[in-house]
Design goal:
- The chain is built from nine helices and four strands, in the order H-E-E-E-E-H-H-H-H-H-H-H-H.
- By secondary structure, the protein is an alpha+beta fold.
- A four-stranded antiparallel beta sheet has the order 1-2-3-4.
- It is elongated, with a radius of gyration of 38 Å.
Length: 250
């Protein structure tokens, strides 16, 4: 970190970059980690800190652009962040969570360059654009809802509506993409559970085996034996009862 000096409104207003500079940060000596980043077209207040007692790499949280945010107001916010760090908190993470919650409607999350699309691109999902189009079209009627308030029935209704149009493939894709989206929302702390998780499939009941006694008996020639249901077609030659033995005359 460059040598700090007390920031003043005049110093910030007069600060300019040299021709060989792309940016410069002027640090404040009154609040450690508080500074203003000088860019070619803007001047922005930031607060830099190390979460976890300095054992991790430094992080920065944006406070606001000068002069829309005054030096006095920016310094107060920086002091508040410094107090949070001293209490073991992570200001950047808290700010990110607040921003995400403020934009947690389905429309905001599925917007172009929104949180979910950014997540897909960070994971290098090659068909990210196709996934976003499918979600936006299939869930158009749910865009005004907060993602935490969308129920399983809402998703099922959207998928069923597409199936009713004879688009089984598109419905299957929407089912898969909404399941993945819901899982992401849970991991981001935007939803309490994945309401669209796959339900376990029950195995089909096996037909009961017929008792051996119910099976028709076969005769030596292969035709049903007498006494079976189809005895009318039984073979008389081999299935008829054997004649009684007779005694030969002496």
């Amino acid at each position: 970190m460059a040598k700090a000096g007390k920031l003043t409104e005049t110093r910030i207003a007069k600060a300019e970059l040299r021709p060989d500079q792309k940016q410069e940060i002027l640090w404040d000596s009154e609040v450690r980690g508080f500074g203003v980043r000088i860019l070619p077209r803007s001047k922005v207040f930031w607060f830099q800190y190390r979460p976890g007692g300095g054992r991790r790499s430094s992080r920065m949280v944006r406070i606001g652009a000068f002069p829309g945010v005054s030096l006095a107001a920016a310094r107060r916010i920086a002091k508040r962040h410094a107090g949070a760090v001293a209490d073991g908190k992570d200001p950047a993470a808290e700010v990110a969570k607040t921003k995400l919650r403020a934009g947690s409607s389905l429309k905001a999350l599925l917007a172009e360059d929104g949180a979910y699309e950014e997540s897909l691109k960070l994971r290098r999902i090659v068909n990210a654009n196709k996934i976003m189009r499918r979600l936006n079209r299939g869930l158009a009627k749910l865009m005004g809802k907060d993602v935490a308030q969308i129920t399983r029935q809402d998703f099922v209704a959207a998928i069923t509506a597409i199936e009713a149009q004879g688009k089984a493939g598109a419905a299957a894709e929407l089912r898969k993409h909404t399941r993945t989206f819901c899982e992401w929302a849970v991991h981001q702390g935007l939803a309490p559970a994945n309401v669209n998780a796959a339900a376990p499939r029950s195995s089909p009941a096996r037909p009961a085996r017929r008792a051996r006694s119910a099976m028709p008996r076969s005769s030596p020639c292969g035709l049903p034996a007498k006494g079976a249901e189809s005895s009318a077609t039984s073979c008389a030659s081999c299935c008829s009862p054997a004649p009684a033995a007779t005694r030969s005359p002496r």
